[in-house]
Amino acid sequence: MAGVTLVNGTVPLSVKLNLDMRAYCEACKLLLESRATLAKADAAIYVATPENMVALQSELTAAKESYRQVISAFYTERDEFTSELSGIWGAEYWAKIKKMLSLQCNPDHPKENELSLLLVRSESRHATAPLAVESLDNSFIELLKNSIDALLKQYLIHATADTMLEMDIVFTLKEENMAITITDNGGGFSDSYLERFASYIQTKAYKLKTWSDEKQCARGCYLGGAGRGIPTLCNLILDGEILENRGVSGRRYQVPAGATAISIRNNPLKKGAEITLVSPLAPFVPHPGELKQVDGEKLSSGALHDGGGRFFLAQPPIAKKKKSILSTIPPSSSAAPSGVADPMDVGLLMISS
Questions:
Q1: Which of 192, 189, 197, 167 is CA-nearest to residue 180?
Q2: Domain range holding 140?
Q3: Among residues 37, 63, 82, which one ends one of the domains?
Q4: Does the pTM exceed 0.85?
Q5: Across residues 194-211, what is the average pLDDT?
């Protein structure tokens, strides 16, 4: 059964997520081995001779029976592994993380106090949040699934023994901006992935197509791979748009060019992938179609100024609840943890709209 734990991180404004994947990784490995044995036995029948046909048919029958038992056990283990994950649909764990971070904020530190208020208000139906935070309201579950798949891939393909997923979430404040850096220990991005990412962002290809790593080598084992996570994240953090369908986006916020950024890199100390989102700490003005004027109310930390003397509050986009994480599976403190580059450093590969 999945053992998910959330604890305060070792640096200010940080949370660590741990997920024990050992039993699930072992079940996946056994499934793939049994599947390969069955395929080998089936292929042998086509080149059988009269002398060994009976023996090969007996081996195929045994392989089929073994596979039926293995796959039954696998589905049982998969259901147990995902039982604690199936209800989060991008909100439950992320909401807990935001609450933990809000409690870490120093009320005597103006920016941390502002962040704390915004994090608390972000759970309200009629409040906005920093765009970096709201982007993860919609996409955190997809990033978590990608990290799970990355660690599983390391275990299955590269024979690594590590089956404890570690994900660090660090908030950094600097002047009027904030950054959220998420790092895992799943082995990192491939060189080709990193090379393609810059072009993918600069040409805004995320508006036109999904992007998947085609996780077919272990079908049924991986939780992600539908290609929704990165396009959804990029559309919102860079353009203030909700990706509704392939090639169709709905504008929610007016995001000036260059006001936000997203970067990815490999973290050598964590031996995993690192993604950083940067946005102003103050929420953006909603697109006119999303604005809701508030007359006669006192301006609060959640209010927005449109530059014309009027103030508005906007209802944030509401993600559709997913029944299960398996929906895509076929049958400051400016301190940063060691090994993590300063997310505000312009020298880091930071790609903005």
A1: 167
A2: 3-21+88-352
A3: 82
A4: no
A5: 82
